[in-house]
Structure formats: C-alpha cells, structure tokens
Design brief:
single chain; seven-stranded antiparallel β-sheet
C-alpha cells in the first residue's frame, strides 16, 4: 500500500511539471511577442525612435532651407528674392548636387521657387518659397486613378481645350508662359500690322515683343501676339513662331450649344455636370467619362493640378519619344510660320509669305531629309504629329482662336500665308497678302503674329507612320525614317495600329479631336502608312487644323512639308 501511494505521488508530480513547463513556455512566448511589438510595432520604441530621428532630420533640413531663404532675401535689399541668390545661399548649407531650384507656383498659383533637397532623401524633399521669402512644403498632386472597366461610349465631337502654361521644364503651372529661347542665328522680330513689315527686337530678354493673352466672352481672340523670330540661311529669311511649354485637358460636351455656353462663360463646369451637359474628359487619367471610368486611353500621365482639375503635359515638350517627345524636356518649340517652299536651284526649304508653294512634288522621305538639313544647329526637322497637335490645341484654346475655326487658304497656286485673297505669285501685292484683313484670319491667332497655312494650301506631311505596313510605299517613299517594325525616335513617331481609338498618341490631334469642325479624319492604313495634315485648298469645309488623312508618301503636288527647330 505504501509503495503504491508513493508511486502515484511520483506520477502526479511528473504531470504537474510538464504542465508548468508548457505554461512557462507560453508565458515566455507572450512576453517575447509583447517585447518585440514594444520594440518594433507601429508605436514601438524602435519605430518611434526612427520617426523621431526622421522628424529631427526634416526639421534640421527645413531650418537650413529657411536660413538660406533669409540670407537670399537679405541680399535683395528689400526686393523680391531671386533664383540666383537663393541658389548661392543654399550652397552654404548643402553639398553641391544635393539641392536644386526651379521657378514654379504653389497650389494657390503664387509664383516663386521649387527647392528640391536630396541630401537625406534620394527622392528629394520639396519646399516652395515665394518671392517674399515665405517657406512651405511643396505638395505634388497625383491624378485620381481611373475606375477599371469601360466607361460610357460618349460622343467626343464637342470639346473645349483648356491650356495651362508650365514654368521652365517643370510640371508647375504658371500664368506667365516661358520666355522664348533664342538660339544661334535666331532674331526676335515684331510686325507693323498695317504693312506687314518686320522689325528686329532690340531687347530680346524683354517681353514687349509678345503676349499670350486669354480671350474671354466672344469665341474669337485676336489679342494674343505669339512670339516670332527670323532665321537666315544662305541670305534667305524664314520665320518661326514660339509655342511655350503647356499642359492641357479637354472637356467633352453633349452639344455645340453647351460648348459655346461654357466657352462664353455663361455655363460653369459645375452646372454643366449637374445638368448632364458634360459627357467626359481627356486629362491625366486618360479618356474618361464623368464618373472617371476609362473609355479609351493611354496610361495615366503625370498630373498638373489646377483648381483640382487634372491637366497633363503636352507630349511635344516631354522626353518620351514614343508619344512624340524629344530626348529631353523642353521649355517650348519653334514652329515654321508658313508652309515650306523651295530656295531656287537647291534642296533647301524656306518659310516665308506670299510664295507659290511649288515644292509640293516631293516624297515624304525627301521632305524629312531636306527639313533636317535646313539648319542642323537648330535641330530642324520635319514636323511631327505631336508638334502639329501642340499648335492645334493652343490655336483652339483661349490663347489662340478661342474655338473659332481658321479660315481656309483656298488659293489654287498654294500661295503661302493667304486666305482667299485674289492674288497670284506674280502679283506685286503677294508679299503682303498675309497681313490683309482676310489674310490674318488664316493664322492661328487671327492676327499677323500667328502660324499660317494650317488649314488649306497644300496638305502637309508629318513625320509619323504605321510601322506594321508591308506596303512598298513605306520604304520607297519614306525610307529615310520609316521601316516595318520600326520604333519611334525624337525625329519620327511610329504608330503600331491603324485604328485611331486604339493607336493614337495623346496630344497628336487625331482621336481626341477627331472630326472637330467637320474636318476630315482618316487614320493611317497599311497601304497608305503616312499622315498628311491640314488639308489642301480644294478640300472645302473638310479642311482645317484638325484634318488628318492617310497618304502613300509619294510625290504629289498637293503635299508640302513644314520644319521647325527646337530648344534642346
């Protein structure tokens, strides 16, 4: 009996020991979990220490920016802070290459400078400094992502293009467009609006030779004086017009009446939305309906927020060559003022008024080559679809014709800079035909300072093509830049399909504005892989700045070319 009791007691003791061990392990695990959470959790000791360190780092960085700002302001002796003094003072507190300053605006539209500091954060922290020396955090707004799924198949026939100028090569909206960048061999000019005679600008750093003015009320706007410049090659003058860097969005309305009411200011966007008079947008989200659902479109673009509306930078000023951009971001581009004509006895183009555009019988490949050779210093090249689009959108906006269609150049002699005036290439009045009362209505501004021959005259080749074409026309006529399976370059844009709704490039004035003003809208095709823009003198009401057609690229008198030089 005694032995049995002892044995049972041993068993009981053994059981208690195992339970205690398990409980001890559980308690230790709980304590370990609590300790780890205390150290590394969202509000843990290590996390709070890291946050405190980051806050100290940011506070120290901001203090240096504020000290630099104070020093820069002191240098101005009571005047507004300058970019030069700000950069000099920042150099006292940050290593070279660890800070950058560019002109810009804050969300309220106040002008000043965007300061980016990369000393502690490789992505850069941004501060906004107004010209009075006030420092605030700079907020970069991103676009709302479009809702997945196909949006309403809305009608895109009635639209208003809104434009916001951008500062420098940034994404900062500004009320002051970028100052024209004059390169070697370029001379700023103004016009006598009565005689059409040009005068060289004595102070090209000033702003008295141009103004990009927003129209209001009436549909037309001839107050804008876009900047003009002259380029002389082999003693022959050609003329170019500055298109400053900008962002845009398109509002699509349900009818022409709604569009006109909005443009004239009698209908607000809020009221139009409430009354279902807006059907969709083309903006930084792509092409979306009023619910933000994607209809057609491209990938979401970098957004420029203006009054909570999402604008997108026009691709002609960007560095994405696939959408028609350059090899770097641009402050603006120079566009030939007139259709190309030929310097007698040469393969050199010229761009001047009152000339019979007899150089229409030229293949697109030769047009591409001759345009590039025009002035290699200025990177001249055959105009691209994106660049045509940049002109078309600014023309349609309140800074151009404000919705009024450009008058057709219907001169059967393809006379450059003309709008139906009864003159011929041999007439003594030809050289001034472009500044007559009729003539100026053929320009992008409705006055002598705009770009001519965008509607009528001769069809104009642009450096864009369908790269899936197996037609011999592709290489026979355009082999200087086009090939089957070819890719886009900074000089030419390759399109991968023949359906505008799926293959367009945003900003190229094809799908986004298809059929506007009744203009012809035929996308490239396999057998006709090249684009022609603007329409010819005989196309009647189907011609215009939004006209595009497919072409063989062959020598055809009704086709001409444009060239432009760009700021690198």
């Amino acid at each position: 009996m005694k032995k049995e009791k002892i044995s049972n007691m041993k068993k009981e003791n053994k059981g208690i020991t195992l339970i205690a061990l398990v409980i001890t392990i559980i308690v230790l695990l709980i304590l370990a979990g609590v300790t780890i959470a205390t150290l590394t959790g969202e509000n843990g000791i290590l996390t709070r220490a890291s946050d405190a360190s980051r806050e100290t780092e940011i506070a120290d960085e901001r203090e240096k920016v504020e000290l630099a700002t104070t020093g820069a302001l002191a240098k101005e002796n009571g005047g507004e802070i300058s970019q030069t003094s700000l950069e000099e003072e920042l150099g006292k507190y940050f290593e070279n290459g660890k800070y950058a300053v560019e002109p810009g605006t804050n969300e309220d539209g106040t002008e000043g400078y965007i300061v980016t500091i990369t000393e502690n954060d490789p992505n850069g922290r941004k501060y906004f400094i107004d010209k009075n020396g006030n420092v605030e955090d700079y907020i970069v707004r991103e676009p709302a992502e479009p809702t997945e799924g196909t949006g309403t198949n809305f009608n895109m026939s009635y639209g208003v293009i809104e434009v916001e100028f951008l500062s420098g090569t940034s994404y900062n909206a500004t009320t002051t467009p970028n100052h024209p960048v004059l390169k070697e061999g370029m001379t700023a000019i103004t016009y006598n609006e009565t005689t059409g005679e040009t005068t060289n600008v004595s102070n090209s750093s000033g702003t008295d030779w141009y103004s990009y003015v927003a129209g209001s009320g009436a549909n037309d706007n001839n107050a804008s004086h876009w900047a003009n410049a002259k380029v002389t090659v082999d003693n022959v003058d050609s003329y170019f017009v500055w298109i400053p860097r900008y962002a845009y969005r398109i509002i699509y309305f349900d009818s022409q009446d709604s569009e006109n009411a909005y443009r004239s200011g009698t209908l607000t966007e809020e009221a139009a939305l409430e009354n279902n008079q807006i059907v969709g947008y083309s903006d930084a989200r792509g092409i979306v309906d009023t619910e933000g659902r994607t209809k057609e479109g491209v990938s979401v673009q970098t957004a420029i927020s203006v009054n909570d509306k999402y604008f997108k930078t026009h691709p002609a000023f960007e560095d994405n060559v696939d959408y028609g951009g350059w090899s770097s971001k641009l402050e603006g581009i120079w566009i030939a003022k007139y259709e190309a004509s030929q310097v007698s006895g040469t393969t050199t183009p010229k761009f001047e008024p009152g000339v019979s555009s007899s150089w229409g019988s030229i293949t697109i490949g030769n047009a591409f080559t001759y345009a590039q050779n025009y002035n290699t210093t200025l990177n001249s090249h055959l105009m691209k679809n994106s660049e045509w689009g940049a002109v078309a959108y600014l023309t349609e906006s309140k800074y151009g014709r404000n919705g009024t269609e450009i008058t057709v150049n219907n001169n059967s002699n393809y006379l450059t800079g003309n709008a139906g005036d009864s003159v011929s290439a041999s007439s003594s009045t030809t050289t001034n035909a472009y500044n007559t009362e009729k003539g100026v209505l053929a320009s992008s501004t409705g006055n002598i300072y705009g770009i001519y021959d965008l509607s009528g005259g001769a069809n104009e080749y642009v450096a864009g093509y369908y790269n899936g074409s197996t037609s011999s026309n592709l290489t026979t006529n355009g082999g200087s830049f086009a090939s089957n399976g070819g890719t886009s370059t900074k000089y030419a844009t390759a399109y991968t399909g023949i359906q505008a709704s799926r293959s367009y490039k945003y900003g190229d004035a094809t799908y986004e504005t298809s059929g506007w003003n009744g203009d012809l809208a035929y996308f490239v095709a396999s057998g006709s892989p090249f684009f022609a823009r603007g329409g010819a003198y005989g196309n009647g009401p189907n011609t215009g700045v939004f006209f595009f057609d497919y072409s063989l690229g062959s020598s055809n008198r009704r086709l001409s070319c444009k060239s432009r030089s760009t700021v690198m």
